[in-house]
């Protein structure tokens, strides 16, 4: 384990509760570490599932001996940590010696259960290196034979026919509303989703929406419907994986929220800096597409990854993905969308959506995806990002607050997706 010189003073402690069919386990570790679920299984000989990630007020300081507890060995290194002793109270400092004394009872022990975040390898900086990084990662899995090309290594589902048709239409500069209506009508489920989406109270359309043409002309517009249809049809490629996807409804709520938030942000930007509204909407819908891809392509590893991410809700998803898979959802999602010949604007913005300082082609949309993620997950927002997008923090937060106020309507859209994909 690392020495006290490498640990930050007053580092906040994370408290995670795990459970299996025989009981519960509490684990405590530094916030700048990742909880190693495989180490927990190895030490306990049990397969725990994470409960909700939370710090129970006063739990560790008031009743340290009321529950089986494993603390990270690194907490004995001599540093001072920060922990809250009751709800709403400011955090107080606690030393390693105090922790050792508090948790000296028979239900507690110190073990090597966490990994310093700084020791986790990061994703490739540039998308041109993704193929090699993903291939090397896949070569680690015994169930997959390493080949020279990703498409030869993975069993990639075919692009849905409806997606093919929409992509072809999007490349036709002469296409109009009638052409788009005809293409969407070939997939009744897709047509129903587009119509119901436009009829959502979120958009406040006057009168009923009776057709795809109504959705285009009266509510959403040609570009948004084009890209909405493409995003919804692409999700059908992984419909077989839906039953295995943890928090499937949360996945779609995040996707829908991101799409409508980015739409709102784009409208607030100076006209000269705005990306295509349709592409922005589609990028928001598909920003988490790699998560679906992992669930379909690597189901056994996805299950383990999901447990790890639930237990490490304090960390960005790319860190747990790099530790477990050695590539991120942004890398595999962007690669797959590029393989399916989606516009560069979409896959490149998704690929760089977790790199706020990215400078390059389609950087505006990549930064919009980053801003949307930070707003929806209460992350910090760099002023430089807002400046590059021509937005103020007040404008961005107003857009987010409007989305929150419409959460009931957005949940109805998600319920519709679940119903029509069932």
UniProtKB/TrEMBL annotation:
Q: Which organism is it from?
A: Marinomonas vulgaris
Upper lineage is: Bacteria, Pseudomonadati, Pseudomonadota, Gammaproteobacteria, Oceanospirillales
The segment(s) forming the HDOD domain are: 156-356
Taxonomy, superkingdom: Bacteria
**Stored InterPro entries:** HDOD, RNase_Y/CdgJ, UCP036888_HDGYP-like
Q: What's the protein here called? A: HDOD domain-containing protein
Residue stretches in coiled coil: none
Q: What Pfam families does the record tag this protein with? A: HDOD
């Amino acid at each position: 384990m690392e020495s006290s010189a490498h640990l930050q003073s007053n580092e906040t402690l994370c408290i995670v509760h795990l459970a299996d069919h025989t009981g519960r386990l509490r684990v405590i570790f530094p916030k700048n570490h990742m909880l190693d679920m495989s180490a927990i299984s190895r030490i306990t000989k049990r397969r725990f599932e994470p409960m909700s990630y939370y710090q129970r007020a006063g739990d560790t300081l008031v009743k340290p001996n009321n529950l089986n507890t494993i603390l990270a060995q690194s907490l004995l290194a001599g540093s001072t940590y920060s922990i809250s002793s009751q709800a709403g109270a400011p955090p107080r400092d606690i030393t390693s010696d105090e922790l050792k004394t508090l948790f000296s009872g028979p239900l507690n022990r110190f073990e090597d259960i966490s990994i310093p975040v700084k020791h986790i390898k990061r994703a490739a900086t540039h998308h041109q290196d993704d193929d090699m990084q993903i291939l090397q990662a896949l070569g680690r899995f015994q169930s997959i034979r390493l080949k020279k090309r990703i498409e030869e290594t993975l069993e990639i589902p075919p692009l849905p026919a409806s997606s093919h048709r929409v992509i072809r239409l999007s490349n036709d500069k002469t296409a109009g509303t009638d052409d788009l209506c005809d293409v969407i009508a070939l997939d009744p489920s897709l047509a129903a989703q587009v119509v119901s989406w436009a009829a959502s109270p979120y958009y406040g359309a006057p009168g009923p929406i009776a057709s795809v043409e109504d959705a285009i002309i009266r509510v959403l517009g040609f570009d948004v419907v084009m890209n909405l249809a493409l995003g919804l049809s692409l999700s059908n490629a992984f419909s077989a994986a839906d039953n295995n996807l943890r928090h499937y409804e949360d996945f779609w709520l995040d996707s829908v929220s991101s799409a409508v938030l980015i739409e709102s942000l784009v409208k607030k930007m100076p006209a000269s800096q705005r990306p295509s509204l349709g592409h922005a909407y589609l990028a928001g819908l598909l920003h988490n597409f790699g998560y679906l891809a992992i669930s379909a392509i690597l189901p056994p590893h996805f299950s383990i990854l999901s447990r790890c991410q639930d237990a490490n809700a304090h960390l960005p998803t790319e860190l747990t993905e790099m530790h477990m898979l050695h590539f991120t959802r942004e890398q595999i999602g962007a690669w797959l969308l590029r393989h399916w010949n989606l516009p560069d604007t979409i896959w490149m913005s998704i690929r760089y959506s977790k790199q706020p300082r990215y400078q390059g082609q389609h950087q505006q949309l990549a930064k919009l995806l980053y801003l949307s993620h930070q707003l929806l997950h209460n992350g910090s927002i760099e002023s430089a990002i807002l400046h590059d997008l021509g937005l103020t923090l007040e404008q961005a937060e107003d857009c987010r607050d409007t989305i929150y106020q419409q959460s009931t309507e957005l949940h109805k859209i998600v319920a519709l997706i679940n119903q029509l994909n069932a």
